[in-house]
């Protein structure tokens, strides 16, 4: 069983459309795939249709979700995977909209800083890299910098200009992780914290914070992820066992935007079963 519970498309900062993602996941032989674009449900419809009409007649199961941007009181960025929630629960969708609007103003402020430093790039050029009303993110700016010849790749753009410690970096509004957990669960879904100890990308969450989120109703921890070292994985696994949380593994696939390959890490079927059972309705999409 191949179960990959965290992927991105052109509904946020991935490079494959939801339809292409479904195609690739089926070709790869994935059994359960979660679509988790940042702060949106924008790709759900296209992915659902693509699965239902897929010529292969594949019986892959599709888990609709979102990776919710959050931040702690001290400004630490935290990503919360919300899966299997009801998209008609407006308080959650309104929170997505608030974050998405602030991502736009934040982008123009980052661009202003780059312009001040003599780097020629415009908001229009960034928008040209985005499909429809996809959640705007630094990867779109990275792509615009590539298109303009300032850098050779997304990765180089992040290394030189866009990383969190850069002088051009600006934060955007996002909910606290406690609020995100509460809204995801009120919407009947499950909350899994994404890559909590990703020290490789400078995103480590403090252990007090993690304990606080466990008390706030966290359902699972993404343990197996390329940004975790072996040691970080065993530490998280220990924590998950101690608190009886579901353990997930996933690719965090972004198309050609990152090296991550579909199903490079996967979730154990028993853990998936437990996680799915925690949602308040059976929402897995099948053909
Ligand atoms: P933002 O949501 O605008 O703060 O941008 C963060 C997103 O950028 C992350 O969710 C990743 O998808 C992406 N990202 C971060 N570092 C890199 C990198 N080195 N190369 C490509 N994408 C990256
Ligand atoms: Zn992303
Ligand atoms: Fe993330
Ligand atoms: Fe992600």
Description:
By secondary structure, the chain is of the alpha/beta class. It has a domain of 62 residues: DNA polymerase, domain 1 (Orthogonal Bundle), CATH 1.10.150. It is built from ten helices and seven strands. The longest helix has 27 residues. The model has no long low-confidence stretch (mean pLDDT 96). The structure holds adenosine monophosphate, zinc ion (ZN) and fe (iii) ion (2 copies). The site of adenosine monophosphate has 11 residues, from helix 5 and helix 6.
Number of helices: 10
Segments where pLDDT lies below 50 for 5+ residues? none
What CATH architecture label of the domain at 101-162 applies?
A: Orthogonal Bundle
The ordered string of helix (H) and strand (E) elements is EHEHEEHHHHHEHEHEH
Coarse morphology: globular
Distance between the termini: 18 Å
CATH class of the domain at 101-162: Mainly Alpha
Which percent range fits the helix content? 25-40%
Mean of pLDDT: 96
**Rg, nearest Å:** 18 Å
The count of DSSP E runs of length 2 or more, i.e. the number of strands, is: 7
What order do the strands of the largest sheet run in, or round the barrel if closed? 1-2-3-4-5-6-7
- Share of residues in strands: 5-15%
Would you tell me which CATH topology of the domain at 101-162 applies?
DNA polymerase, domain 1
Oligomer: single chain
Characterize the biggest β-sheet.
7 strands, mixed
**Distinct compounds present:** adenosine monophosphate, zinc ion, fe (iii) ion
Structural class: alpha/beta
């Amino acid at each position: 069983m191949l179960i990959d519970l965290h992927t991105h498309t052109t509904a946020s900062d991935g490079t494959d459309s939801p339809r292409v993602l479904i195609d690739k996941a089926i070709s790869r032989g994935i059994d359960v795939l979660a679509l988790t674009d940042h702060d949106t449900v924008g790709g759900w419809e296209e992915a659902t249709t693509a699965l239902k009409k897929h010529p292969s007649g594949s019986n892959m199961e599709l888990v609709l979700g979102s990776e919710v941007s959050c931040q702690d009181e001290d400004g630490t960025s935290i990503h919360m995977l919300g899966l299997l929630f009801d998209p008609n629960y407006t308080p959650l969708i309104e929170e997505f909209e608030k974050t998405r609007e602030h991502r736009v103003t934040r982008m123009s402020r980052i661009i202003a800083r780059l312009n001040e430093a003599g780097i020629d790039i415009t908001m229009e050029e960034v928008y040209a890299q985005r499909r429809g009303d996809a959640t705007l993110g630094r990867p779109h700016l990275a792509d615009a910098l590539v298109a303009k010849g300032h850098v050779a790749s997304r990765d180089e753009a992040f290394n030189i200009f866009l990383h969190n410690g850069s002088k051009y970096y600006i934060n955007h509004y996002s909910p606290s992780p406690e609020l995100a957990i509460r809204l995801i669960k009120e919407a009947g879904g499950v909350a899994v914290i994404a890559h909590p100890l990703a020290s490789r990308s400078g995103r480590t969450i403090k252990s007090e914070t993690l304990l606080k989120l466990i008390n706030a109703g966290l359902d699972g921890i993404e343990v197996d992820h390329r940004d975790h070292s072996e040691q970080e994985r065993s530490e998280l696994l220990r924590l998950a066992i101690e608190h009886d949380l579901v353990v997930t593994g996933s690719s965090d696939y972004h198309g050609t935007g990152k090296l991550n390959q579909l199903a490079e890490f996967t979730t154990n079927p028993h853990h998936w079963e437990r996680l799915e059972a925690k949602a308040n309705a059976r929402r897995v999409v099948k053909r």
